[in-house]
Amino acid sequence: MSDGLEVAKLAAADIVAWLSSKPETISVINVENNPAFQSRDIDLIWTTHKGEVLVEVKGDRWNRTNNFFFETHSNLEKGTPGCFIYTEADWLFYYFVNTRLLYKLPMPKTRDWFGITMNRFRERSTTTPVGNSHYTTVGRLVPITTVMLEVPGVVRQQL
Fold first, then answer.
1. What's this model's pTM, rounded to 2 decimal places?
2. Please, is 145 exposed, middle or buried when counting C-beta atoms within 10 Å of its C-beta (0-12, 13-18, 19+)?
3. For residue 14, what are the CA distances in angstroms to 45, 67, 159?
4. Among 7, 41, 101, 152, which residue has the least CB neighbours within 10 Å?
């Protein structure tokens, strides 16, 4: 679990630094530890000259698979939906930390597309030990090229 947390921290730090350097940025506030935003699965509030943008950051180190992992259950044993299913963010920033490659996915447009098409993608799960127990995370491996072709508004950005 600590490896996943390190990836998440690195991803958030890189995205905050990148957004802060953009000329349209007024402020970037990291709200990952704020319970009011955790329940809505929002990591950043990015304020620009055009207004407020809510961002969920997904850090990933498995960039060689050419897939996104869209989480459908964050904790299968507790019946907790995955962040991809319930985020209230305007954008999901899917960031490969090893290559510093960012995909900006418009939400809820991407989730709506995924809901219609998810059965065509392979389901995968992973278990994470917690004390004497574990929890299971479930999601779908979705080819990046498919998302780029089928979801309008997806942007690829090299940081």
1. 0.91
2. exposed
3. 15, 21, 9
4. 152
